Amino acid sequence: MKLFYSTTSPYTRIVRIALMEKGVEPIQHLTDPWKDDPGLLAANPSARVPTLLLDDGRALTESLLIIQWLEITYPGRSLLGTDPAAALSQAGIAFGAIDAAAAIIIGRRMTDAGFDQSPVGLRRRRSIIEAVKRLETQLPSEHVETPTIATIASVVLIDYLHFRFPRAEWLPSTANLDRLSERHRLRPSFETTLPCDMPVA
Ligand SMILES: N[C@@H](CCC(=O)N[C@@H](CS)C(=O)NCC(=O)O)C(=O)O
């Protein structure tokens, strides 16, 4: 198996954490999706990461579909915890905010930093604020054995927000999410996948 990944993508980080927690070790292929790597483009017409190329040549794309495949194929260490509806419900809140944060970053690529103050930019910012407020008062329950998709998505969200919006005065308190992230940094799956700028080619 081969995973196309970038060091900045929150979607990729979710999949990388899930793969490591499941004990699945594909070859890791670092790529900048914006540079149209031919191998990535052949595997995924959208040329996006994460893309997981299976040994039989089929490609899995879209982080949540990859997670679904992982959960079915490697059911041993479930990412759904003891209350799957709770885990999925909370993961959805974190995913919504990840989508909103990624939309702001892409919006800046399309226009400039002025996108943040546009009606769509402010709406995406509101999504982040409301999701963070909700997760702060209602942290996902923690499982010693394997983190749930809710915990993975929440930690990926908060680390991505600090990475992309380091001095954002509009962010509400993230103290509880920060502590959740710090606790999980003890796990290699979280620690080795922290977001960072792509190496210069
Ligand atoms: N819905 C997709 C989103 C994937 C995505 O947007 N990946 C970004 C990196 S964070 C990407 O590859 N962007 C390149 C592009 O949009 O052309 C998922 O969940 O995997």
Automatic annotation (TrEMBL):
- For whether the record's keyword set contains Phosphoprotein, the answer is no
Give the top-rank taxon of the lineage listed in the UniProt record for this protein: Bacteria
**InterPro entries on file:** Glutathione_S-Trfase_N, Thioredoxin-like_sf
The cross-references to Pfam families, in alphabetical order and at most eight, read:
GST_N_2 (PF13409)
UniProt keywords (A-Z) are: Plasmid
Give all residue intervals belonging to the GST N-terminal domain. 1-78
The protein's matches in SUPFAM superfamilies, at most eight in alphabetical order, are given as: Thioredoxin-like (SSF52833)
List the protein's name. Glutathione S-transferase domain
